[in-house]
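Bug: token stream looks shifted between consecutive jobs. Job 1:
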Amino acid sequence: MLQLNNQRTAVMFIDMQNSIARHDQFQSTIEACQRLLTIARTHQVPVIFVHVRPYEHVKRSMRGESEVLLARPGSVPMDPKQYHIIDALPVLPEDHVVTKHVRSAFVGTELDHLLRALEVDTIVIGGIATNIGVESTVRVGADLGYNFVVAQDACAALSAEAHEASLKYSLPFFSRITTVDQLEFIGE
């Protein structure tokens, strides 16, 4: 078990929004995120939902998975509901919602200020896609001094290979990797 101080930890979900997490292949990831959300709320750990609403110029520059997950360049803008967090992960009034415009949740957002105001130094993170939004957020956040725990079963990518490569080759340099069931929140 990985013990975490519930007074200094937040749980963050990356891009668990209708336009991304609606794909059937993400059902087990959504279930793991639901377990993580329940654990966080039970232990009064702050919950942060991050959703992406890319600027038009960013959409045009995206390639590969990001294009597939969001919108094709030159396409009709998505219905605003596509940016909402999925119903399976209900946002409560006490939760925090951060809108990002690029891959990392820290770039151009109030996230760093929010975490400092909450006196958080450790972030348990899950979401889609492991190798894009999750990894980018972990990399930037680690450079800002935050400790990250990646709940690998609460993350996914469009391919198992991309998910595994991120977990094996990149994320271990910036975070601890575990599963939702291995997390234990304790008070001070």
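Job 2, same session, no restart:
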Amino acid sequence: MRLAIWFSVVGIASMSMACAARKPPPPAAPVSNATPELRAAVEKASACNYDAGRFDAECEGYKAWEANSELANAGLLEMMTSEDTKVRALVVRKLSVQFTADNADKDTLAAYLNAAEKEKVEPIAKDFARGIGSMDLGKFGLLDRGIAIAKAHSVADYQETYASALKSESEPDKVLAYAGELAKSEDLALRNAALRMFVNATKSRGEVACAGLDALRTDKDPSLAQHATTHLAHAGACAKQHDALLAAIEEMKLSKNPAAAEPYLGEIVESICQNAEKTPAQRDRSLVLAKQITETTKIQGATRSSTLAAVLACDPKAGPAFVKKFSKDKDAVVAERAKSLLEGTAAKK
């Protein structure tokens, strides 16, 4: 009986030892992508003075960091959520330059977006916004996510920075729809961002982009309206809107109202004359306006000098004779512009 008990105890002990022997080892510590070299570079750079969102540009550690183009994105991405503000500032700025749609994948981009969404420090958040805006998020199906983060971000300037940099060759229509929303904002900075988005899209989505610019030329902010108008005149894809631009200038009757002839009006006429997409009728109307403005000596010289160039662009054959008459104009700006244009014309012959 005692022997049976002894064997039973020994058996249980043996089973326990066997189970203990088969106990799985503790999981290995995850391998870090932040190499010792990267950590050393970060340590040296972060030792430099950091004030108002800027590092001391003359500090050797920071200069070395800026010059280093060999830092792997994987390590930077791992460190972008560091609790140390200076570390985040360094790695996020570096990522905004070198982390692109060409070397990203959907998972790392999703992590990048998550970190951007949570960032509270304004300069770092804006670096996130610049980097994300310049990437083709549509390529990864993440453009909606990027826009949603921008709209709701806690840092006030994040959305403007993101929108100003926004590109998505894969989903340009979504970009333009977003620009259309921003164009209706009460925030002038966001409407200016919409302007830049429309300008960037005139070649790829001319009809929608030009319509957006046309709507902004009546914006309540005079400077924004002026920029929208001049961009419309410059863009070949926006030739359909040029008739309205010319009509607006014609209705101003500048020869009788010279004080209203601001320099950008001359630039508009010049741009339409230079536009390869202009119609014969637009060319003729532009030429008439250009001559009228140039001949009205009460109009300021900056405006008349632009319309001198417009005459040459709209009428290359007869234009030089017209321009020559103003080479001795009483307004020195006009006279010098006339001489310069004539010299350029002579050099082309």
